[in-house]
Amino acid sequence: MSLISDNLQAVLDDIWATEQRFDRPSKSVRLLAVSKTFGAEAILEAAQHGQTAFGENYLQEALEKITLMQSNAPELHLEWHFIGPIQSNKTKPIAEHFDWVHSVDREKIAVRLSEQRPATMADLNICLQVNISGEESKSGVSPEDVVALALKISALPRIRLRGLMAVPEPTSDVAQQRLAFRHLRELSEKIVAQGISLDTLSMGMSSDLHAAIAEGSTMVRIGTAIFGSRNYAK
Ligand SMILES: *Cc1c(COP(=O)(O)O)cnc(C)c1O
Q: Among the four residues 52, 68, 116, 203, which has the most C-beta atoms within 10 Å?
């Protein structure tokens, strides 16, 4: 069994080598460690090896881990990213406990996060999730509607629109992977052309990070390659 710290180093080495391979500036891609379904011990191990940003999908599970980490290891100053589907009646704890939200896909959610973000905290960083592959069941704003949504929410107080996020339909065809990520980058360029400055493309997971980095990802969200495969039955 490999150690989380070894996996973490291997993923970082892979990210840095891929930056070089595709002429991306060194350290221009951040690693978000997706810790959903794994316990606070796993997070602690990664954090003790220098990982600071953690992504979570399930609110209740995330809140328990955030509380635990803050009381047991307050010196670590971890950064928490919510990346799962958002129900509108669950926005308040998200606004109160996270640093980033990658999965905003409608105006109502953004307005609630803006209203509920405590004024004592730094602005909440937001990415709009785009349904890039047009899958019926997937969350995310449609590519046709994302520019209008960005314009609507970019002026809201206490939240800061940073960029776009997508989870494309899984495929092992690297050319297809790149096509989807290129599409997301082009949508982000359209928004920038409207005068909104963005600095984040949240794209790439364990099985498609190379394609994502090739197409301009600035944040890869990696779970399995760091923590191992998830056991949802447990
Ligand atoms: C689970 C998840 C990830 C991590 O996926 P891996 O394939 O385990 O790297 C990334 N992004 C989102 C939105 C996820 O739900």
A: 203
Question: Which residue's CA lies nearest to atom 12 of ligand 1?
Answer: 83
Collect the ranges in the chain with pLDDT lower than 70. 1-2, 137, 233-234
Span between the terminal Cα atoms of the chain, in Å: 19
Q: Indicate whether this model's pTM tops 0.85.
A: yes
Task: Supply the CATH classification number for the domain 3-227.
Answer: 3.20.20.10
Q: Which sequence spans correspond to the domains of the chain? A: 3-227
Give the mean pLDDT of the chain.
96
